[in-house]
Design a protein that fits this description.
The protein is α+β, with helices and mostly antiparallel strands. The protein is built from 5 helices and 6 strands, in the order αααββαββββα. A 6-stranded mixed beta sheet has the order 2-1-6-5-4-3.
């Protein structure tokens, strides 16, 4: 019986130790945790929570579209207009990394909503648009100082042409 117990321990203990070690050694950095919370508030269109992430000098810049908004109130006003009637909105993060308070997320934005906003009146459109979102964070006050999006609008146009 002791031999069976020894074999059991040798076979299963390293796997459990390895998983525990990975969890302890690889926690998500605080900057990435804050970025994920911010993106959740944004994509859930939770403007009450979102306003706590901004300051007067916070900046949202859609670099591809060359649109910039400064100040929490103006950023939220823009998002409220842009998300009006949107049925589904999420950002699927495929890769995320940070260098200090700069967090970069690579993935795709998924939108499903009224076609009027995309030149397709009377239709419900559904697009998944590749993009890179970078956030500069103020980790002392837990705020977003700068949100920059680089969105692949050509892919969006290609998807819209098929709908």
């Amino acid at each position: 019986m002791p031999i069976i117990a020894l074999i059991f321990c040798l076979l299963f203990t390293p796997a459990m130790t390895t998983v525990a070690a990975q969890l302890d050694l690889n926690p998500m950095p605080q900057e990435q945790q804050l970025a994920v919370k911010y993106m959740a508030a944004l994509t859930e269109q939770d403007y009450q929570t979102l306003k706590h992430f901004y300051r007067r000098d916070s900046v949202f810049f859609d670099k591809t579209a060359n649109r910039k908004y400064t100040g929490g109130r103006f950023i939220i006003d823009f998002f409220e207009r842009a998300h009006e009637g949107v049925l589904e909105y999420r950002f699927n993060i495929e890769h995320m990394y940070n260098a200090g308070a700069l967090v970069v997320m690579i993935g795709n934005y998924h939108f499903k909503g009224p076609g009027e906003q995309f030149g397709k009146p009377g239709k419900i459109i559904d697009v998944a648009i590749p993009g890179v979102t970078s956030l500069k964070l103020d980790m002392v006050n837990l705020r977003v100082t700068e949100h920059i999006d680089l969105i692949d609008y050509q892919t969006m146009a290609d998807q819209l042409a098929l709908q």
